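INFO batch 0412 | record 1 of 1 | parsing
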Amino acid sequence: MSTNLQNEKKSALNLIINGKHYEWLQQYITGAEVRELANIPQEDEIFLAIKKPWEDETILDDTKTDLARPGIEHFYSKMKFPITLIVNGRPKPWNEEKISYEQVVKLAFDNYVENGRTIYTVTYDKGPRQNHEGTMVKGDVVFVKNKMIFNVGATDKS
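INFO prediction complete | emitting tokens
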């Protein structure tokens, strides 16, 4: 093989996104390319892990990261907060990655009454991959994502 052909042939550079190994054939990768490669939702933030005592770097869609530096670059994503949950058709701000059955009821009715007479039914849809849709009962906790839908009903056993 001629020297020119060897120089033209690129070797893959390694990177890790949210704990999963990927290969990239270019020296630089943008935040948008990281997002697409790892299927990261647009509403999530992307960070480049930096060794302590320095802070991790926020990676915007147009930020270029050099993958040819020594070591393997580690990227991770996190949901931006607050997010908006849709509870009984109304938007409600939320600041955590998960929500409990009791917290959903409080968002729907401003309080949670545990008197043995009131029964709450909770269903959800458009959730993250861990729990895309389903029902909740007392004690349940589910992961949330922006614009996840919850429907909550209250029935009085009289």
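INFO post-check: Helices lie at 3-8, 31-37, 101-109.
INFO record closed
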